[in-house]
Specification:
Strand 3 and strand 4 form a beta hairpin. The chain has a nine-stranded antiparallel β-sheet, with no helix packed on it. The chain has an eight-stranded mixed β-sheet with strand order 10-11-13-12-14-15-16-17, with helices on both faces. By secondary structure, it is an alpha/beta fold. The chain has twelve helices and 17 strands. The radius of gyration is 24 Å and the shape is globular. The N terminus is likely disordered. Helix 3 crosses helix 4 and helix 6 runs antiparallel to helix 7. It folds into three domains: 89 residues, Beta Barrel (Lipocalin); 250 residues, Alpha/Beta hydrolase fold, catalytic domain (Rossmann fold, 3-Layer(aba) Sandwich); 83 residues, no CATH class.
Length: 466
């Protein structure tokens, strides 16, 4: 699930004139709200014009700045696509640009200090360890078709333990967005780490690029969760045909949206042996998104009053979308609610139509209307549902209570909250999305070991299913 540089923001003008000159060229760094790190580089082109680049590694965001103006003691620029801006004066005492960043109608202080280099590559120790050692499994590039989805081919990686099979196996199903087989995000590759861990413990793993992503065919833009579930079913069919795999011991591990898809597949396919939900939603998408956006705004420093106003607006917007089965009509209704939010000053001017379009894409419209409860109630297989205590995207308190209630009939269900982990199952300080890139850990060992131990206890490494 997605996040941006601080949302929609308000633009800014420059202050006036200097006392003595400062060389602004080179690399600079700063932090918004003591959490979101910015890196900037300023320099002159061959014709003497100033240009600049902004990087936000925590969000994988890089852009050229607009309307950069550099004076002897003044500096300012805008980000026109985001309606954002920064303006500052040079402080000789602090050796820094002391100024303000404007966003979402709010102004926060920001100081830029010299940096010796650009934002460097952050360490990813688990990926480094995988690359450095010899694997105890083989890895194959594979492809398979989804006849039910129009016949497009999906491409993936299939890791198989060494030794005598057939082995238990899992399909890894990604979260929302155009995600590749490794679920790559901000330099992390959680599915690569998870596949390595599982296959090192005797479990074959299939992970694949989403349709229309990487080497997979098909169209991503118009696809919904139901379409992605169809692709996941094709992945299961591929595993059932592999001689290395025990067809009676195939399960599915889904993260975020994938944690919604895995129970959908299990409910339709009684031969699927087990399900693991990693931060899978337990409540209707409409309710989840209201809380997700409120928690994200709070983590970004919005006041309690501003969070409450936006929560109320989002409730009205999503209720209007969910009530309308036709996405195009839902978009009109959502825009009308948001335009009222503009008039009341809750949203920046001119943003209602943009937001309405974003929330009424085929995927979003389908997601907001999806009810996980009835699906979970129909799952008869063993199921493990895990959430991180500090997950702000699929909050554990909200979702695990709903999942427990839906699975109350299933004696083979295990529902657990893992302490101190965020939405990516990293060990986190606050759980804010702004921390994802800075955390070196891709997946906490606690999460890896919990998943593998449960799977092996459920299906075993050899012989028949337990």
């Amino acid at each position: 699930m997605k996040s941006t540089l601080l949302g929609l923001v308000a633009a800014f003008t420059l202050a006036a004139s200097p006392a003595h000159a400062v060389d602004a060229s080179g690399h600079w760094k700063g932090s918004i709200a003591n959490s979101l790190r910015l890196f900037l580089q300023f320099g002159k082109t061959a014709d003497g014009k100033w240009e600049g680049t902004l990087k936000v590694p925590q969000q994988g965001f890089t852009t050229k700045v607009d309307q950069l103006e550099v004076g002897a003691e003044q500096l300012g620029f805008k980000l026109l696509p985001l309606n954002a801006g920064f303006t500052a004066r040079w402080s000789e005492q602090d050796k820094a640009w002391i100024g303000s960043w404007s966003q979402n109608g709010q102004t926060v202080p920001l100081r830029l200090e010299r940096s010796e280099a650009t934002a460097g590559q952050l360490r990813r120790p688990q990926l480094e360890a995988i690359a450095a050692r010899q694997a105890s499994y083989t890895s194959l590039d594979v492809g398979f078709a989804n006849p039910a989805g129009g016949g497009h081919a999906l491409a993936g990686s299939f890791t198989v333990p060494r030794g005598k099979g057939p082995f238990p196996a899992v399909v890894l199903v990604h979260g929302s967005g155009p995600i590749d087989r490794d679920e790559t995000i901000l330099g992390h590759k959680p599915f690569l780490v998870l596949a390595d861990h599982l296959s090192s413990r005797g479990i074959a793993v299939l992970r694949y690029d989403k349709r229309g992503v990487g080497k997979s065919g098909g169209v991503y833009q118009s696809a919904t969760t139901d379409d992605f579930a169809s692709d996941a079913e094709a992945a299961v069919a591929f595993l059932r045909a592999r001689p290395e795999v025990d067809a009676t011991r195939i399960g599915m591990v889904g993260h975020s949206e994938g944690g919604m898809i895995a129970p959908m597949v299990a409910a339709r396919d009684p031969k699927l042996a087990f399900v693991v939900m990693l931060a899978g939603p337990g409540v209707r998408g409409e309710l989840l998104m209201v809380e997700q956006l409120a928690l994200a705004a709070s983590a970004a420093g919005a006041s309690a009053e501003a969070v409450d106003r936006e929560r109320a607006l989002n409730r009205a917007v999503f209720a209007a979308i969910v009530a309308e089965a036709r996405p195009e009509v839902a978009g009109d209704k959502a825009r009308q609610v948001m335009e009222e939010g503009e008039r009341k000053g809750i949203l920046p001017p001119g943003t209602a139509a943009v937001r309405a379009r974003a929330f009424t894409t085929p995927w979003f419209h389908n997601f907001l209307r999806h009810e996980p409860g009835p699906v979970l109630q129909s799952v008869r297989q063993p199921i493990l549902a895990l959430n991180g205590e500090r997950d702000l995207q699929v909050p554990a308190e909200l979702d695990l209570s709903a999942i427990r209630a839906a699975l109350a009939h299933n004696p083979r269900a295990v529902v657990e909250e893992l302490p101190a982990l965020n939405h990516l199952f990293q060990t986190a300080r606050t759980g804010a999305a702004s921390e994802y890139a800075e955390i070196e850990e891709s997946i906490a060992p606690l999460a890896l070991n919990t998943v593998s131990a449960w799977i092996l206890a459920t299906v075993g490494q050899g012989g028949s299913m337990k």
